[in-house]
Specification:
Strands 1, 2, 3, 4, 5, 6, 7 and 8 form an 8-stranded antiparallel sheet that branches. It is elongated and about 50 Å long. It is built from 2 helices and 8 strands; from the N terminus they run αββββββαββ. By secondary structure, it is an alpha+beta fold.
Length: 152
């Protein structure tokens, strides 16, 4: 019995010493945000973001209740069109394609939004919610709030 405890203690210490410590991922800059289109299927945005991942492992990024508003009018919740993987030990620009379905209740006035974008000096897009990073079976939730004026 005593031998099993020694083996278990050695295995546990090896396991815990092999674990990497997590270092915070840093958004270096929001380099670009563009409104690709607004149509009956939803709002389509493209962003180019420079992110530093100082960890020794890749991180998969997901959205969790990430709300999108245009000119202070709530549109809906965003989803990633394509998965985003942050490469380990790097600072890179990542293209992020976002889709936000329009509410089915018809409360979003597409004509007004389009006119504001084309003739009113642009639109202000607000994104607020949480981003979740997952790596090695562990996830970390990070709050995010971005406001950007887009001029078409």
């Amino acid at each position: 019995m005593k031998n099993w405890l020694v083996v278990l203690a050695l295995a546990a210490s090896t396991l815990f010493s092999a674990c990497d410590t997590y270092k915070d991922v840093v958004v270096v800059s929001y380099d670009e945000m563009a409104l690709e289109s607004i149509d009956v299927n939803g709002l389509h945005l493209n962003a180019l973001v420079t992110i530093n991942n100082p960890n020794n492992y890749d991180i998969q990024v997901q959205f969790e209740e990430l709300g999108v508003s245009i000119n202070q009018q709530f549109i809906g919740y965003a989803e990633l069109k394509k998965p985003v993987k942050l490469n380990s030990n790097s600072t890179e620009q990542y293209p992020i394609a976002i889709k936000c379905a329009l509410p089915s209740d018809g409360k979003v006035n597409l004509g007004q939004l389009t006119a504001s974008a084309l003739f009113g000096g642009g639109v202000v897009i607000d994104v607020k919610g949480n981003i979740v990073g997952k790596a090695k079976g562990i996830s970390k939730k990070v709050p995010i709030e971005i406001s950007q004026k887009l001029i078409l």
